Amino acid sequence: MSARVSLGVDTEELASCVSCGLCLPHCPTFRVTGEEWASPRGRISAMREVQDHGAAVDDAFLASMDSCVQCRGCEPACPSGVPFGSMMEATQASLASRRRIDWRRWGFRVLGHRWLLNLVSRVLAVVQRLRLVPSKRLGLPKIPLVQDRLRASGDDVWLFTGCVMDAWQRSTHAGVKRVVESAGVGVALPGAGAGCCGALSLHAGLENHARALAIRTMGALEGSAPILVDSAGCGAALKEYGKHLGTSEAVAFSERVKDVHEWLAAQADRLPPVGKRHQEVTVAVHDPCHLRHVQRVHQPVADVLSRYATVVALDDDGLCCGAGGAYAAMQPDLAASIRKRKLEAIRRSGADIVASANPGCTIHLANAGVTVCHPLEIVDEAIHDDR
Ligand code: SF4
Ligand code: SF4
Description:
Bound molecules: iron/sulfur cluster
Radius of gyration: 21 Å
Oligomer: single chain
Helix content: 40-55%
Strand content: 5-15%
Low-confidence stretches: none
Structural class: alpha/beta
């Protein structure tokens, strides 16, 4: 690509960066490269050069944009309130229509069809068992051959089940559902109409596809019951439907969305005690970026978990682990370098196990040999260990 383009970034947003550099230490790609082009300030400067001064969209520009994990760690660190996430989303949307070859365009379409994702997942599971696919190199977890069916237990709250997590980690949803039910609450499940929330498509710049998935998701979770989400990336996307779709219906929908830990922390007195045979473990909590920087509700994870386990904090200021949705597959070297810093922090913590409330982080860390699970799987085991 070499043609001059308008990126479609809001001019006021673009002008709001004062180039102070206070965000740089909070940016995982700057931390591992030390390069300005891999920093929030450098990326904003490059956007300005293209949009305001007609610079070409060349390979250096693409490398700067595509190396961004879209973790949004730079946003809470910025004293000027620069909305980096929406600027990067606009830039990626502009670039997406100009990319001649982009497997994400086809891959993310699969996520929008539950039957197709389930079919692809079963084929992958078989191929994995035959050792015909380099799972580790591709960042794939061990995909189950069969999945237990989840059954609704009431209509007090919805549990959003999503796409990849439902196809590959449904046992996590089952554990989360048992914990929510243990607070005396009936759980409704979305039907076949619900699936992908559109987060990955939005990050890849596939705006129309993301918008269509958002509208379909809203239609599958009707009524006024709270919508609980156990994946940080999906929760952040659902909470931003109001902003992205700009309709009163979408705003009302987003107000119903709660990260499941956020919701449970407010019902803590209804949660049961630990089971009789429970042995407490030491858990390090890895905060997914979309829980910490976007939803800004990472504290409830530790609040809920600390009732059932000894929780230790990581000393890396909540830096990204490098998973970033499809980032680990698109930018494997950078993703591995970023993860290395996280692994060092985990080692320093001395924890037995790591808890992370996002499937992408869980898979990325597990591929490096870390024992990692969803926080509510630990709570489920602690409550129900005498089943
Ligand atoms: S994004 Fe914010 S913190 Fe970073 S350089 Fe710009 S104004 Fe400073
Ligand atoms: S979103 Fe994350 S990787 Fe991208 S510039 Fe901001 S801090 Fe860096």
